[in-house]
Write a structure and sequence with these properties.
- It is a single chain.
- By secondary structure, this protein is α+β, with helices and mostly antiparallel strands.
- The chain has a single domain (24-184), classed as outer membrane lipoprotein receptor (LolB), chain A, CATH 2.50.20.
- 19% of the residues lie in helices and 37% in strands.
- It has 3 helices and 9 strands.
- It has helices spanning 5-20, 25-34, 126-135; strands spanning 38-49, 52-63, 67-74, 80-83, 90-94, 104-107, 142-146, 152-158, 164-175.
- Strands 6-5-4-3-2-1-9-8-7 form a 9-stranded antiparallel β-sheet, with helices on one face.
- A hairpin with a 5-residue loop joins strand 8 (152-158) and strand 9.
- The longest helix is centred in the first third of the chain and has 16 residues, at 5-20.
- It starts with a helix and ends in a 12-residue tail after the last strand.
Length: 187
Amino acid sequence: MRPPRAPKIILCLLFFTGLAGAETPCEKAAAAWRSVNSYRCTYRAVTEHEGKVKVSMMVYSFQKPGKVRMDIAKPRKGAVLIYNPEVSEKVKVRPFPGVKSFALSYALTDKKVSSGSGGTIDRSDLGHKIQTVCAEPQAPGRRVTFDKSGFLNRVEELDSNGRTLESFEWKDLEINPELPEKTFTDF
């Protein structure tokens, strides 16, 4: 004797309705980002270009709407970059830690303050990175991990053999810390 079909249909509907209501990692990341006014973290990037590996590490501070401070640990320890669109459309750079009064200003797209792939400081925050990653969540050659709060933890770009070409990590993430205004104006 065949079991009644109605219970199977109900179970299937309940199962798929439950899945449809589940939050994707990108939805969780977008929701987490909406609660952010500021953050600070240790940012680490490992990139390879023409056979050379470059490691960058910094303390990265961010405050909406788009204020960024990068205190560089590698490759040039002590250099500081500040971008504050409320003050200037230029990136202020203190390249030498021992000469506090010496600062330079560069356009956002200047190669001295942009990445080799054309990334600019005004689009370097986690919100923009979440948008980029989630625009193609299943991009071939990309491995993405999120922390338990929904924030990006690590992004790896892989070659066709699964070897890591680039990796980007956000560690020691502090959400909504008190950041004095001078963080984004003074060296």
